[in-house]
Amino acid sequence: MWIFGRKGASGFSASSTAEDVTKGIDATGLTAIVTGASSGIGFETTRVLALHGVHVVMAVRNIESGQKVKENIVSEIPNAKVDVMELDLSSLASVRKFAAEFVSSNLPLNILINNAGVMAPPFTLSKDKIELQFATNHLGHFLLTELLLETMKRTSREQNKEGRIVNVSSEAHRFAYKGIFFDQLNDESSYNPIYAYGQSKLANILHAKELTKHFKENGVNLTANVLHPGSIQTNLLRYHNIINGVVDWIGKYFLKNIPQGAATTCYVALHPQVEGVSGEYFMDSNIAQPNSYAKNAGLAKELWDISLTMVAPYH
Ligand SMILES: NC(=O)c1ccc[n+]([C@@H]2O[C@H](COP(=O)([O-])OP(=O)(O)OC[C@H]3O[C@@H](n4cnc5c(N)ncnc54)[C@H](OP(=O)(O)O)[C@@H]3O)[C@@H](O)[C@H]2O)c1
Predict the structure, then answer these.
(1) Hey, which of 125, 127, 131, 234 would you mutate to test ligand 1's pocket, going by the most ligand atoms within 8 Å of its Cβ?
(2) Membrane-spanning residues where (predicted)?
(3) Mean pLDDT of the chain
(4) Which fold does the domain 2-311 belong to in CATH?
(5) For residue 3, is pLDDT > 70?
(6) What pLDDT digit, counting tens, does each position of 271-307 carry?
(7) What DSSP element (H or E) covers 42?
(8) Active site residue ranges
(9) Would the CA dihedral through 208, 237, 286, 198 be positive or negative?
(10) Is the pLDDT of residue 4 over 70?
(11) Ranges of each domain in the chain
(12) Are 270 and 19 in contact (CB under 8 A)?
């Protein structure tokens, strides 16, 4: 239990903060993209990566709030290298535009943190007529990753350094419908907000698993891992006022705070212990076990093929 701070094999526990798990790491010269960097875990991840010298591109849907976050970070860390770029993951056109602008900037890319997420909204279709949680949490990140892969591969070759893709999933993957309901993805009558959230988070795990397979088959010096950050009081519960109110009230006694909530992301993104590790599920900065659907190679391949069809043509 994290409240007891029991350390796992990594030497870190659920009570470790993002600064604890990255202590002493010099990440100067690395470039990262963090999606959903304007609040919660994404904000703290950006701050701590910048603290260690990483040039962070904050990929946010609201440029104004992104700029405010950047100003806060720079006022605390005057030499922080932070840029803000617009990205709405629920729009495939926006993902394409972001990726095209990033690629044409000629920046290297060592770390891609697919962090942004929405949780359990009422049934909504995205601009592309795809259920909002699947669209935002999985499909937008799937396309983003595909469009940035060549840049990541080039960077890893030129710098002779492993590139890392980090998907922020959730223990809620255990509440998915049975696996992924491919035939009913956009069907309002069978929609359950929590199961659909779980489904999108299961997709985050399967995505990293299939990426790992491709990287190994092609001898690419990139890794893809996935994590549950813990239960943290953030804006994620914005669609559920009553639960949010209760969590606000008593959360400080049993939930992680945001610095603890960003720890596993920062650990997986930067820590030397994770060198060469790919396709794993992390929790509390230690390797953990997701459920059997998340380990199903056939399901990972099916999700990959269907996702490719859904984003086609992706160039
Ligand atoms: N908090 C927890 O207990 C918990 C537990 C397990 C997993 N997670 C996962 O952790 C990740 C971060 O969540 P959080 O807790 O930090 O929540 P949060 O504070 O609500 O942050 C979510 C971020 O995602 C962004 N976002 C939402 N929709 C987007 C879109 N269409 N395009 C671009 N960005 C979008 C939000 O932007 P705006 O600020 O503009 O809305 C926000 O910056 C999520 O993937 C979530 O599923 C959280």
Answers:
(1) 234
(2) none
(3) 94
(4) Rossmann fold (3.40.50)
(5) no
(6) 999 999 999 999 999 999 999 999 999 999 999 999 9
(7) helix 40-51
(8) 191
(9) negative
(10) no
(11) 2-311
(12) no
